[in-house]
Design goal:
Oligomer: single chain
CATH architecture of the largest domain: 3-Layer(aba) Sandwich
Number of helices: 15
Radius of gyration: 22 Å
CATH topology of the largest domain: Rossmann fold
Number of domains: 2
Mean pLDDT: 88
Structural class: alpha/beta
Shape: globular
Strand order of the largest sheet: 3-2-1-4-5-6-7
Distance between the termini: 33 Å
Order of helices and strands: EHEEHHEHEHEHEHEHEHEHEHEHEHHH
Strand content: 5-15%
């Protein structure tokens, strides 16, 4: 199987985890992936240790050049993330200039290499994951030429992505035509949650309920089995990941200050830990609220070390800003939080993330921006901590998100496509099993 993924180790951050773990476990289900990705380049984070997952698997990783904006900084390695204002400006600029995204400069190199691989090798399927949406365009063009089954993986929505701004109606119309064109070529579509599935079905009426399979984000049990938890003598509340867009630590920082002012004895017994990149402006905000003694900032860590912090924490914190579109977000970090078997403080709006946290059996929910509510919840968590009464997520709920199990669902989708092709004399039909589809999902007529 040919896997098309711009984001792949040694690039770091959350976008690489899902594809990496699929590639790791697909051989257990009779599929041998070949990964088509970019050459190492400048990026906000790198983690070469992620490739250890593939050391003994014999997985071939094919890397090509790419003339995208990061190519300019190819010799700089890891580059610092700009401040929030600069980051937003650069993102908007990229979205205005590059269609469908700033990785479109990879397309011609990937098509050339993909054509060579499919011409010379024996590939039974393609799997392309987005964002970047350029990955889907590459798969579409290869599908048109070689007519092998193509599965598209939506880690985020495309047209409805809350992080994308369409500068003009013309830009939006081009994106819609592009998305429609790749979906018409797809033999199966995978999404991370029900909300994204319903958005696609509502917009593109040629698709049916069974064309789209939900395979959520997950956690790898192996990651937790081989780490020594990084514990603290104090109640540690940990956030793992990067703050960007409308996600900010500022409401939590203000809430911690109020909590400590109200419960002074907690000052020596609690701490807030940030695992990941942390901008200078947020460090200044910490100092302004006199929290230097109650905050740990690790910076970006290799994934195994980040997992060790999750495993050693007492409470794990997730934050979403509450803007339009945040209801469809269910980030990979949330499922690693579940894998750590820790209670989750979710400062999140109604939507996919809140539902998962509530159903875990160990969730504490607040409005994302309500500082008083967050402070009261911190006080409650501290009380539970002192009594050794912090809850754990339900084990049956957690286990369904294990990466190997989820990869089994993907393998089933792929195998079903091949069996349909065999039954019809080689012509693959546009139909896939709903391996993960929630029984509560509506019929097509209801969407």
């Amino acid at each position: 199987m040919l896997v098309i993924a711009y984001y792949f180790p040694p690039l770091g951050l959350s976008g690489v985890q899902r594809t990496l773990k699929f590639v790791k476990y697909l051989p257990s289900f009779g599929w041998k992936p070949t990964v088509l990705t970019v050459e190492p380049r400048a990026y906000f984070a790198h983690d070469s240790t992620l490739l250890y997952d593939l050391d003994s698997s014999g997985i071939e990783i094919i890397r090509t050049p790419s003339l995208d904006p990061l190519h300019v900084f190819r010799k700089k390695g890891t580059v610092p993330m700009p401040n929030e204002a600069t980051y937003k400006f650069l993102t908007l600029l990229n979205q205005a200039v590059f269609i469908p995204d700033s990785k479109v400069g990879w397309k011609r190199y990937a098509l050339r290499k993909g054509t060579e691989l499919l011409s010379n090798g024996s590939f039974h399927a393609m799997f392309a994951t987005a964002p970047p949406y350029t990955d889907l365009l590459i798969a579409r063009d290869l599908k048109k030429r070689f007519n092998i089954p193509m599965v598209l993986d939506y880690r985020d929505a495309w047209l409805a992505n809350p992080l994308h701004r369409y500068i003009t109606p013309f830009h939006r119309a081009i994106h819609r035509r592009m998305e429609d064109s790749v979906l018409r070529e797809a033999d199966a579509v995978v999404t991370i949650n029900r909300t994204i599935k319903e958005l696609i079905l509502t917009r593109y009426r040629h698709l049916t309920y069974n064309d789209i399979t939900i395979i959520p984000q997950g956690y790898d049990a192996d990651d937790f089995a081989h780490v020594t938890p990084r514990r603290s003598s104090r109640m540690r509340i940990t956030y793992s990941g990067t703050f960007y867009h409308n996600r900010t630590p500022r409401y939590m920082i203000e809430a911690v200050r109020r909590f400590l002012d109200k419960v002074p004895e907690a000052a020596d017994k609690s701490e807030l830990c940030f695992v990941g990149q942390f901008r200078d402006e947020n460090l200044s905000f910490l100092r302004k609220h006199r929290l230097e003694e109650n905050v740990v900032v690790t910076g970006y860590l290799p994934h195994t070390e980040a997992v060790a912090y999750l495993a050693g924490s007492d409470v794990l914190w997730m934050m979403l800003g509450g803007d339009k579109g945040d209801e469809m977000i269910s980030t990979g970090k949330l499922f690693e939080y579940l894998g750590a078997r820790k209670p989750i403080l979710g400062c999140v709006p109604p939507g996919e993330a809140r539902t998962i946290i509530e159903e875990s059996g160990a969730g504490f929910i607040t409005d994302p921006t309500d500082v008083d509510e967050i402070a009261k919840t911190l006080e409650h968590l501290f009380s539970l901590y002192q009594r050794n009464a912090l809850p754990r997520p339900r084990e049956d709920f957690v286990q369904q998100f294990e990466r190997k199990t989820l990869t089994g669902h993907l393998a089933y989708v792929l195998s079903t496509l091949l069996s349909i092709g065999d039954e019809t004399g080689g012509a693959v039909q546009k139909k896939s099993p709903a391996a993960w589809n929630d029984k509560k999902e509506p019929d097509d007529a209801e969407i």
